[in-house]
Amino acid sequence: MMKDWHMLPAEIEAQSMKIIEEELGEISLPPLHKEIIKRVIHTSADFEYARTLRFSPQAVQAGLEALQQQAVIVTDTNMGLMGINADGLRRLGCTKQCFMADPEVKAQATANGTTRAVAAMDKAAALQGPLIFAIGNAPTALLRIQELIRQKKCRPALIIGVPVGFVNVIDAKEGLMKMPVPYIVAKGRKGGSAIAAAICNALLYMAIRKK
């Protein structure tokens, strides 16, 4: 028999987090990492992320500092963009952008013979202020960001590299983990726009508490 079907969303989330905490059991995780991992598991119901999410040293701190300095979060899908909590951004004075549907980006991609994701990252690199890239779908976006960093055209505050799929996905993630920038990566093929948004939201909630 179904129980507690009348629970409010906040109550459901609280109970879900309690269940996740219990099922993580004795897995030892750094506290700041654990909060993000729990949010990802809450989104995906996939406990494998407790083993596969990788954090560069000080990645969480770098993300929190960027959010406290009115960062721009750039996504590679409108789905990821919509999943990032708008009220949390507003409270911190941050913004979010996705250029995948931008007519200029479409024209540039066609002219250069690239994916629209590559052209979108080129446009994003020109944005002012601390940049957080949240890549959940397009490994070509992640690869292009790495090129821009090597060319000294972009220095992100944090890169969330969690594209999902089979082609170039693992190479793009492994390449990111060799870059001299803060990163949060989901090793292997798993990921997605919802996972990227969940990581952003976990950071937003943490930054709001520290405000």
From TrEMBL:
Signal peptide: none
EC number: 5.4.99.61
UniProt KW Protease keyword: no
Superkingdom of the source species: Bacteria
Pfam families: CbiC (PF02570)
InterPro entries: Cbl_synth_CobH/CbiC, CobH/CbiC_sf
Keywords for the protein's UniProt record, in alphabetical order: Cobalamin biosynthesis, Isomerase
Pathway listed: Cofactor biosynthesis; adenosylcobalamin biosynthesis
GO molecular function, one term: precorrin-8X methylmutase activity
All copies of domain Cobalamin biosynthesis precorrin-8X methylmutase CobH/CbiC, residue ranges: 11-206
Protein name: Precorrin-8X methylmutase
Family statement: Belongs to the CobH/CbiC family.
